[in-house]
Amino acid sequence: MKLQRCPKTYLYDTHRSQNPEETLRRVREVAKHIGVSKVVDITHLD
Q: To the nearest whole percent, how much of the chain has pLDDT over 70?
């Protein structure tokens, strides 16, 4: 994975360079190649 400079925006207490849907799409694509079988929301587990 090669990181590049990109503009960021501030929205709802977060700094983002992409919207959440695009971030999740990219994570799922990489996950296939590194053996991650599940991506879940763990917000309420802590």
A: 91
